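User: Here's a chain of 87 residues. Predict its fold as tokens.
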Amino acid sequence: MVQGSLKKKSASAGPKRPTALGPKPGPRQIAPKKAKLIKQQKLTKKLTAGLTARTEKNLAEKAGHLELLAGGKKDKKAASNKAKAAK
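Assistant: Prediction complete.
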């Protein structure tokens, strides 16, 4: 036996966007209290900073190499200067 007509779904507002598009705050970290853990954290921070600096330096060198190729910032500036001079 038929119970009745089917209920239709209401139209949705569309996909929901996150309110904050920037980076989310990370979980809070409790600072170590024991001397051994403090020393270990300082060493880890120092080594991590060194690795980050070295990685950024390598990336900058590679990006600098790309600037020497055609289509870099210098070529774009030259093209825009020529376009302004033509007007």
